Amino acid sequence: MSDEIKAFYKLRTETNWTKRYESPYPVRRYFFRTLYRLIIDYCKNYELVLDSGCGDGVLSVLLAHQNSEQRIIAMDISLEGIERAREAARDYGVEKRMWFVVGDAEQIPFKSGSFPAVISSHVLEHLPDFDKGVREIVRTMRGDGTAIIALPVCLSICSMVQLGDDGYWKLSRKSLFAFWKGLVRVVIAWLKNQEGVQEGYAGSQTVPHIRRFPCKAIRRIESGELKTMQWFADSLLIPYLGQYSSLFLKLQHYIDTILRNKIFFRNLGNGIIMIARKKNN
């Protein structure tokens, strides 16, 4: 199954620029721009950054565009994704400060201790071997390096809407029951002591995309050689509302700014962002 999953991603082309960063749906666009901004804020001062599992390069290119002193390595298993990332870098005028590599997040093709910062943004939940992906992040980090890891989780309203087979960014015929369906799936997973809920990906239930419980995701990552310096919610996103008025998104931004770091509320994001370092440093 591992080889089948990797073959799936090698042939799949992500369209995150149009689907997420430039989404026609204000709520979706707000969420992903918020996610990218938060990650960039935590790694913009490192001279060399690896974006492991970069897709079509949105985060890599935006990071390079923010800081003219940085060198960014954009790596993804999909050749088509890397070509799109290169094209975007050319459009943004940052191609000369970026390197583009076709590589597997479970077998990163760089020497140990190569990078002061490694980004893994919504990648680990896709991997056949989650723990191997974490170990590769640790291996390629410098001794005093930083890992910025973003993961989807399952306790937010938006997460449950998605687990109920609806999109949080627009109302549909599924919207009335989506949250309740997702809530049932989360409760069942909790009662069975599972790590989270297998959401599936791109219409396939066999391709892994697990929305984990925040505490279990952190515990699993820390079971290896990483220690969490801090973690917080990406956005306490309220589904649907921003579709109708930009005022809701301004309110959303205020809520996120105030609450995303609070001990209780950080569990309720659409995802979490972890800032981690090696335990022996």
UniProtKB/TrEMBL annotation:
InterPro entries: Methyltransf_11, SAM-dependent_MTases_sf
Pfam families linked: Methyltransf_11
Top-level division of the source organism's lineage: Bacteria
MF GO annotations: S-adenosylmethionine-dependent methyltransferase activity
Domain Methyltransferase type span(s) in chain numbering: 50-149
PANTHER family per UniProt: 2-METHOXY-6-POLYPRENYL-1,4-BENZOQUINOL METHYLASE, MITOCHONDRIAL, METHYLTRANSFERASE
Protein name: Methyltransferase type 11 domain-containing protein
Upper taxonomic lineage: Bacteria, Candidatus Fischeribacteriota
